[in-house]
From TrEMBL:
The active site is at H127 (proton donor). It catalyses: N(1)-(5-phospho-beta-D-ribosyl)glycinamide + (6R)-10-formyltetrahydrofolate = N(2)-formyl-N(1)-(5-phospho-beta-D-ribosyl)glycinamide + (6S)-5,6,7,8-tetrahydrofolate + H(+). This is Phosphoribosylglycinamide formyltransferase. It comes from Halomonas sulfidivorans. HAMAP family: PurN. Catalyzes the transfer of a formyl group from 10-formyltetrahydrofolate to 5-phospho-ribosyl-glycinamide (GAR), producing 5-phospho-ribosyl-N-formylglycinamide (FGAR) and tetrahydrofolate. Belongs to the GART family. Pfam families: Formyl_trans_N (PF00551). SUPFAM superfamilies: Formyltransferase. Pathway: Purine metabolism; IMP biosynthesis via de novo pathway; N(2)-formyl-N(1)-(5-phospho-D-ribosyl)glycinamide from N(1)-(5-phospho-D-ribosyl)glycinamide (10-formyl THF route): step 1/1.
Length: 245
């Protein structure tokens, strides 16, 4: 009886074998993918990107993957009649790579609920705003139109609510008086490239988890906006001149 119990327990808690596996989904440039690849190259990601999948055949991120020796897969959505059919095919391709974590890095598709549920608790996204502000598209233009003093980006677990899942980490940028959409986007991108690798590493090391509706770091529930890096904190990390803010 006790043997049976301990065998059962062992089945439930397999020893970790090998590096944690990451599949990254992209649709375009892939600068966030590049930030992750760079960390991996320096052995700082806490796992291995085993495949990059794009729904767009000429996404530049695919080239970044190939240059890094990572399997680059194209799965064009135009070849499927429905979102459900596409997402079903995508699930199959992803699962072939047996990922511990699915990373959305500029993957410009609305996800079906089946897809979201399949990777529940092990799928992250990066969004260019300080969530919950400015969900959806054109976040920089909206922030400028509102005249906000602070903008930024957030890494969050993916749930069925668009850009609404629990946030793990976000980074703030100060919006300057002469800011344009282009300059703001550029500033936010530098923060994205800083925080996405951090969140991925936390997850792969088992430090970051989704518990119910809450992102938990090192056993401590995070506030709704996650761990927040101020403009100054991020600038210091990035060796930026604070006067340029
Ligand atoms: C980023 O701004 C990210 O926040 C959003 O899509 C964009 C992807 O950029 N989800 P890149 O392809 O990583 O350069």
């Amino acid at each position: 009886m006790s043997d049976y119990a301990s065998d059962t327990l062992n089945d439930l808690t397999p020893e970790p074998t090998g590096a944690r596996r990451v599949v990254v989904l992209i649709s375009g440039n892939g600068s966030n993918l590049q930030a992750l690849i760079d960390e991996q190259t320096h052995d700082r990601l806490g796992g291995e990107i085993v495949a990059v999948i794009s729904n767009v055949a000429d996404a530049y991120g695919l080239q970044r993957a190939r240059d890094a020796g990572i399997d680059a897969v194209v799965l064009p959505h135009g070849e499927y009649d429905t979102r459900e059919a596409y997402d079903g095919a995508l699930i199959k391709v992803i699962e072939r790579h047996e990922p511990d974590l699915v990373v959305l890095a500029g993957f410009m598709r609305i996800l079906s609920s089946r897809f979201v549920q399949r990777f529940h608790g092990r799928m992250l996204n990066i969004h260019p705003s300080l969530l919950p502000a400015y969900r959806g598209l054109n976040t920089h233009a909206k922030a400028l139109a509102d005249g906000v003093a602070e903008h930024g980006c957030s890494v969050h677990f993916v749930t069925e609510e668009l850009d609404g899942g629990p946030v793990a980490i976000q980074a703030v940028v100060n919006v300057s008086g002469d800011e344009t959409e282009t300059s703001l986007k550029e500033k936010v991108h530098t923060r994205e490239h800083l925080i996405y690798p951090i969140a991925v590493k936390w997850f792969l090391e088992g430090r970051l988890r989704l518990v119910g509706e809450t992102a938990v770091l090192d056993g401590t529930p995070l506030p709704p906006h996650g761990l927040r890096l101020s403009h100054a904190d991020a600038a210091e990390e990035l060796d930026e001149d604070l006067d340029d803010a």
